[in-house]
Amino acid sequence: MMKPDQKTSRKQNPRRPGNDSGAPEKSIPPWPLDVRIYAEPIDYDEATEVQQTLVTQRLADAIPDTMLLLEHKPVITLGVSARQENLVLSSEKLCALGIDVVQSARGGDVTYHGPGQLVAYPIVKLRPRERDVRNYVRRLEETAIRTAATFEVTAWRRPGMTGAWTAAGKLAAIGVRVRRWVTFHGVSFNINPVPDGFQFIVPCGLAGEPVTSLRDILAPAAPPPADAVRNAWLQAFTDVFHRRCVSCSNA
Fold first, then answer.
1. CB atoms < 10 A from the CB of 163, how many?
2. DSSP secondary structure letters along 73-95
3. Domain ranges of the chain
4. What is the pTM of this model?
5. Among 37, 207, 243, which Cα is nearest to 130's?
6. What does each of the 251 residues of the chain score in pLDDT, given as a tens digit?
7. Which residues contact 34 (CB under 8 A, 6 or more apart)?
8. In sequence order, which residues have a C-beta less than 8 Å from that of residue 163 and are 6 or more positions away?
């Protein structure tokens, strides 16, 4: 499951990531995907409410598979496995710095979200061949790995962990929930996070494991603009998950 350790995070003719098991046969037409883009950072609680509404609608087949692409206002989220000792500062001190601290229903420990980070929330009804949560997470990792490769950055999986990793550290984090085979929550992919709130936490509860971004890996070159990373993510997601974007609108 792990790509061998690399000496550099720059791409060096990596093997093209393969289609993971659970994907449909290519003879099946891609399933439709509605994409909603938020132009400005939004509150975490607001995004959670939107997801809950969309999950209910998707369960009733009132909407197609839908993906939210957005940035959050600065926030530290505590997943269902979070431990308070993984907060370096108290909630009060973090709030004084303009960083909210909220409890989240997603899987995992503690993480940071903020401007300069792409967050993707797929509200997807997993088809019978896709109904394996571990495989779903693996395919999200594959999407992040392919997105990084678009910008000549090599990323890989690590056994026993989730996310996309590079020689410089963790580039993308994953925390999901599934309700009656409809997914929500999702992935954060670090582009140019400002402020860098990771310094105030033990990311994902992994002491000593650095977090990185396209900005850090590609320096001194400038990181790609957010819309370029968003487009790369969307292309990779539709390829890996055999979906077809039928509408893309600003939320």
1. 27
2. SSEEEE-TT--GGGBSS-HHHHH
3. 31-250
4. 0.85
5. 243
6. 333 333 334 443 333 444 454 555 567 899 999 999 999 999 999 999 999 999 999 999 999 999 999 999 999 888 777 777 777 777 788 888 888 888 887 777 788 899 999 999 999 999 999 999 999 999 999 999 999 999 999 999 999 999 999 999 999 999 999 999 999 999 999 999 976 787 787 766 666 678 999 999 999 999 999 999 999 999 999 999 999 999 999 98
7. 63, 64, 65, 66, 67, 245, 246, 247, 249
8. 141, 144, 157, 170, 171, 172, 173, 174, 204
Catalytic residue among 95, 204, 245, 248: 204
Query: Strand 182-190 and strand 243-250: pairing?
Result: unpaired
Please answer whether residues 211 and 198 qualify as being in contact, where contact means their C-beta atoms are separated by less than 8 angstroms.
Answer: yes
The length of the chain in residues reads 251
The C-alpha angle with vertex 145 and arms to 139 and 150, in degrees rounded to 5, equals 130
Active-site residue 95, yes or no?
Answer: no
| The CATH classification of domain 31-250, taken from the options 3.90.1210.10, 3.40.50.300, 3.30.930.10, 3.40.50.150 | 3.30.930.10
